[in-house]
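Posting this for the archive.
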Amino acid sequence: MDKMENRELMKGVTVRMVKNVLMTIIAIALLIFIYKFMKYKRKISEYKRNREINEKMKMSREKKLQELEKEMIANKEKMKERVKKGEDEKKDKQSDASKQRPGSTDNSTFNHFRDYSNYYRPSIRNRYKNASS
């Protein structure tokens, strides 16, 4: 009879043991499932947040580009006005320069920026003659 009781006790212990093992496996699987679900939710929320940030940045970039385009257009207009003013001033200067003042001499052939040093240099023959004497 002791053997029968021991067997029944062993069956009870093994059933409890199997039940506990199954419960721990189910609990671990449930924890893993919850962890994966939370990780998935976090990725979704992060993706949404990044998408919103990208949209805001794109809008701000577009605004900046529009402002830069406006500035470029304004600068082009200013440059055109400056060029026109410069051309007008050049025309005025040319017309003033073409008119001779009374009592002035015409020095139009002399240029201050031209190199005239070769014209005033003595020839090689003259240099040798001067060196030998």
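Residues 83 and 116 are 34 Å apart (CA to CA). Residues 2-98 form the longest helix (97 residues).
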